[in-house]
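C-alpha cells for chain A. Residues wanted.
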C-alpha cells in the first residue's frame, strides 16, 4: 500500500493512479526549485527568529535544502510525481536527509502562499532576463540604423507608398516599440515584488510569524496586506503574459516587414543564408522561415494570455486548484518570447538593405507629393487647396507616366501660379528627407539625433 502523504490522512486510502497522474504538476513546476528553496530558507530563518524552531533545527534545514539544490542542479535528484509538485518533492527529500526538523518547515505555511511566493520570485528574475534581451535587440537595431542614416526608402501607409524616409528611421521605430515593452515589464515587476508568504492557506496564521522578515530576506519591496487576496491573486501573471503578447505583436510586425522586403517583388533586404531555409521540392527557394516562425509563435503568447484570463475569470474567492494551470501559460509565454527575441536579434545583425535597388525605384509612387503640398503652404496657399492642387498634378503626371520632378515650370504654373523655380528643391525623395524639420521626423538629421540618444540610453542598462 502506498504510504499516505500528510495531507491525505483525512482521506480514506491512497489516491487512484489516474488521480496521481492527473493532479501532478511536478513535471512543469520543477523549474521553480531554486525559488522554492530560497523561500523555504527564508521561512525557516523567520521561524527560528520567532523561536518556533531552534537555531540548530534551522541550520539543519538550511544545509539540507542546500544539498537538495545542488543535487537538482547537477541532475542527481529523482523527481517522484507521487509528491505532486516541487514543494512536496523538496520537503519529502528534506525529511529523508535530516529527519524530524524537516517536518517543522511547513509550520505556519501553506502550499497556497508558497507557490505564490515561488512564482513571484521566478517572474522577478525572468523579467530581468527578458528586459536584457529587449535591450540587446534595441542595440542591434540602433547599430544597424547607424549604417543607413543617409539612405532613403519609401514609407508605407495602407501598404501603399506614402512618403520618403531614411532607413535608419524605419529601424528606430522598432526601438521605440521595444522601449514601451521594456517599461511595461518594469511596471509589471513592481507588482510582482510583493510578498504573499505568511498568508497561509487563506486566513493567515495564529502563530506569531514575521512576514516583514521573510519579505525583506527575499528582496520583496513590500508584502500583500490581505491574506485572502495574497493567495488568490494571479493578476501579475496575466499582466506578464500580456506584456509578452505585446512583445510578440511587435516582433511579428517587424518579421512581416522583413519577409515582404526580402521577396523578389521588393528586394529591399537580404537576410543571411544562415537564417533562411530552402524548399524540399523547389531548389531555387530561399525562405525567411525564422521570421515566419517568429510571426507564427505570436499565437502561443496570445493563446497563453487567453488561457490565463479564462483560468481566472470565474474562480470563487481564494485559492483554487485551477491555479495550478497558471504555470503552463506563464512558462510558455516566457520561453516563447525569450526564444523569439534571440532569433530576431540575430537576424537583424545578419540583414542588409539593398540600397541600390531601393534607390532605383524611389521615383515610383509620388513620394514627394506631400512635400509639394507643404511647399505651396509655405507660399501662402491654404493646405486643403494645396492638397487639391497636388492631387490634380499627380493625376496629370500619371496620365503621362512621368514624375512630379519631370514637369516643366510652365506646366506647374497651369495648376498654381504660386509655384516658382525653387519648387524642384522640394521634389525627389532625397530632397524631401533633407527638408524634414520636426522633432522625430524621418530625415537624416533626426535619425542621427535619435541614434545618439538611444546609444546613450541603452549603454546605461
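Reply:
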Amino acid at each position: 500500500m502506498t504510504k499516505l502523504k500528510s495531507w491525505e490522512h483525512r482521506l480514506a486510502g491512497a489516491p487512484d493512479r489516474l488521480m496521481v497522474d492527473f493532479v501532478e504538476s511536478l513535471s512543469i513546476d520543477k523549474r521553480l526549485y531554486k525559488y522554492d528553496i530560497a523561500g523555504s530558507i527564508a521561512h525557516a530563518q523567520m521561524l527560528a527568529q520567532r523561536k518556533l524552531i531552534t537555531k540548530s533545527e534551522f541550520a539543519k534545514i538550511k544545509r539540507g535544502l542546500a544539498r537538495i539544490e545542488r543535487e537538482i542542479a547537477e541532475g542527481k535528484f529523482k523527481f517522484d510525481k507521487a509528491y505532486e509538485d516541487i514543494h512536496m518533492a523538496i520537503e519529502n527529500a528534506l525529511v529523508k536527509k535530516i529527519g524530524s526538523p524537516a517536518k517543522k518547515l511547513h509550520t505556519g505555511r501553506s502550499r497556497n502562499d508558497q507557490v505564490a511566493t515561488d512564482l513571484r520570485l521566478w517572474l522577478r528574475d525572468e523579467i530581468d532576463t527578458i528586459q536584457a534581451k529587449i535591450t540587446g535587440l534595441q542595440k542591434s537595431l540602433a547599430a544597424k540604423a547607424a549604417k543607413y542614416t543617409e539612405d532613403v526608402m519609401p514609407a508605407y501607409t495602407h501598404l501603399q507608398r506614402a512618403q520618403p524616409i531614411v532607413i535608419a528611421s524605419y529601424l528606430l521605430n522598432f526601438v521605440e516599440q521595444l522601449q514601451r515593452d521594456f517599461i511595461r515589464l518594469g511596471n509589471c515587476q513592481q507588482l510582482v515584488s510583493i510578498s504573499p508568504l505568511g498568508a497561509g492557506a487563506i486566513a493567515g496564521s495564529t502563530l506569531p510569524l514575521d512576514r516583514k522578515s521573510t519579505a525583506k530576506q527575499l528582496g520583496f519591496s513590500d508584502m500583500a496586506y490581505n491574506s485572502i487576496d495574497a493567495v488568490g491573486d494571479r493578476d501579475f501573471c496575466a499582466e506578464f503574459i500580456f506584456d509578452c503578447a505585446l512583445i510578440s505583436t511587435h516582433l511579428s510586425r517587424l518579421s512581416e516587414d522583413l519577409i515582404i522586403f526580402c521577396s523578389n517583388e521588393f528586394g529591399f533586404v537580404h537576410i543571411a543564408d544562415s537564417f533562411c531555409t530552402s524548399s524540399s521540392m523547389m531548389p531555387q527557394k530561399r525562405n525567411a522561415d525564422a521570421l515566419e516562425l517568429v510571426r507564427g509563435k505570436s499565437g502561443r503568447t496570445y493563446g497563453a494570455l487567453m488561457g490565463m484570463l479564462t483560468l481566472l475569470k470565474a474562480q470563487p474567492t481564494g485559492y483554487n486548484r485551477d491555479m495550478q494551470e497558471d504555470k503552463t501559460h506563464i512558462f510558455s509565454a516566457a520561453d516563447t518570447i525569450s526564444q523569439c527575441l534571440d532569433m530576431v536579434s540575430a537576424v537583424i545583425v545578419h540583414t542588409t538593405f539593398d540600397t541600390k535597388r531601393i534607390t532605383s525605384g524611389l521615383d515610383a509612387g509620388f513620394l514627394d507629393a506631400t512635400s509639394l503640398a507643404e511647399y505651396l503652404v509655405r507660399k501662402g496657399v491654404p493646405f486643403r487647396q494645396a492638397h487639391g492642387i497636388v492631387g490634380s498634378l499627380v493625376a496629370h503626371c500619371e496620365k503621362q507616366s512621368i514624375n512630379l520632378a519631370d514637369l516643366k515650370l510652365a506646366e506647374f504654373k497651369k495648376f498654381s501660379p504660386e509655384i516658382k523655380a525653387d519648387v524642384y528643391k522640394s521634389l525627389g525623395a532625397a530632397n524631401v528627407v533633407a527638408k524634414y524639420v520636426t522633432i522625430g521626423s524621418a530625415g537624416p538629421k533626426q535619425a542621427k539625433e535619435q541614434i545618439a540618444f538611444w546609444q546613450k540610453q541603452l549603454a546605461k542598462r
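The domain at 369-459 is CATH 1.10.40.30 (Ribonucleotide Reductase Protein R1; domain 1). The chain has a mean pLDDT of 95.
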